[in-house]
């Protein structure tokens, strides 16, 4: 058996049907011969019968006829205008953007943005602070100085580094719902329950100092005072060194 012809063009198959129809072959015979040459899935028997009737009725064209339909309104010019609007304000909504393009629906506008232009919406990622170029340069210079000092002094440098920071400490820290979760089976008769609680409104500022071995000193700020450079110097020069002497 000869090899099958794979992936023939539709017009090629229809040309064969037209040729065999002109030779007065029956549709079932045409269908059998097509399967022998092109395989079982080339066309259905009903499809062969439809094309045989068309050719018998005088049709000669084996190509698909042009379909009359509504022309697409998505043009290159429209894509450029939508892209320009998106670049003006990236926090837009489809409803807001549709005011600038009333001639198209919001569903089509969403399709243009997501599929034609390839835009995706991203949520902002929380970061502690946004650094300026000066901040980045200062941190880079400090890091290079530390590396240079470490190459000279080795691990002994780490014993001389003390870090300080401030944090709010609440009088009562309630256990969160996530922290109170328990493992169990779905068929367990009793599920854990938890009363709704609010975080304590009373809090105080704590200044914490630590080195490579752990926390050295925790200083709590008195009520009515604020943490500033002067306060930090007092804590560092008095409490800090007193804590080092006692350690």
Automatic annotation (TrEMBL):
<dbReference type="Pfam" id="PF01359">
    <property type="entry name" value="Transposase_1"/>
</dbReference>
<dbReference type="Pfam" id="PF17906">
    <property type="entry name" value="HTH_48"/>
</dbReference>
<dbReference type="InterPro" id="IPR036397">
    <property type="entry name" value="RNaseH_sf"/>
</dbReference>
<dbReference type="GO" id="GO:0032259">
    <property type="term" value="P:methylation"/>
</dbReference>
<dbReference type="InterPro" id="IPR001888">
    <property type="entry name" value="Transposase_1"/>
</dbReference>
<keyword id="KW-0489">Methyltransferase</keyword>
<protein>
    <submittedName>
        <fullName>Histone-lysine N-methyltransferase SETMAR</fullName>
    </submittedName>
</protein>
<dbReference type="InterPro" id="IPR041426">
    <property type="entry name" value="Mos1_HTH"/>
</dbReference>
<dbReference type="InterPro" id="IPR052709">
    <property type="entry name" value="Transposase-MT_Hybrid"/>
</dbReference>
<dbReference type="GO" id="GO:0003676">
    <property type="term" value="F:nucleic acid binding"/>
</dbReference>
<feature type="domain" description="Mos1 transposase HTH">
    <location>
        <begin position="13"/>
        <end position="58"/>
    </location>
</feature>
<dbReference type="GO" id="GO:0008168">
    <property type="term" value="F:methyltransferase activity"/>
</dbReference>
<keyword id="KW-0808">Transferase</keyword>
């Amino acid at each position: 058996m000869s090899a099958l012809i794979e992936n023939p063009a539709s017009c090629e198959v229809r040309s064969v049907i037209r040729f065999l129809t002109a030779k007065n072959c029956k549709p079932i015979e045409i269908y059998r011969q097509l399967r022998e040459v092109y395989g079982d899935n080339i066309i259905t028997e009903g499809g062969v019968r439809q094309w045989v009737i068309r050719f018998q009725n005088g049709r000669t064209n084996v190509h698909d006829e042009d379909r009359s339909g509504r022309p697409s309104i998505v043009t290159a010019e429209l894509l450029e205008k939508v892209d320009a609007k998106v670049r003006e304000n990236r926090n837009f909504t489809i409803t807001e953007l549709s005011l600038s393009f009333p001639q198209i629906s919001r569903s089509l506008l969403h399709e243009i943005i997501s599929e034609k232009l390839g835009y995706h919406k991203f949520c902002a990622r929380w970061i502690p602070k946004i650094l300026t170029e000066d901040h980045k340069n200062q941190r880079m210079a400090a890091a290079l100085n530390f590396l240079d000092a470490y190459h000279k002094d080795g691990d002994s440098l780490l014993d001389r580094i003390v870090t300080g920071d401030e944090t709010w400490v609440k009088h009562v820290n309630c256990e969160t719902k996530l922290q109170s979760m328990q493992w169990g089976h779905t068929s367990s008769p009793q599920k854990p329950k938890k009363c709704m609680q609010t975080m304590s409104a009373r809090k105080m500022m704590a200044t914490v100092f630590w080195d490579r071995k752990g926390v050295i000193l925790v200083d709590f700020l008195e009520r009515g005072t604020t943490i500033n450079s002067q306060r930090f110097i007092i804590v560092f020069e008095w409490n800090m060194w007193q804590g080092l002497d006692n350690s």
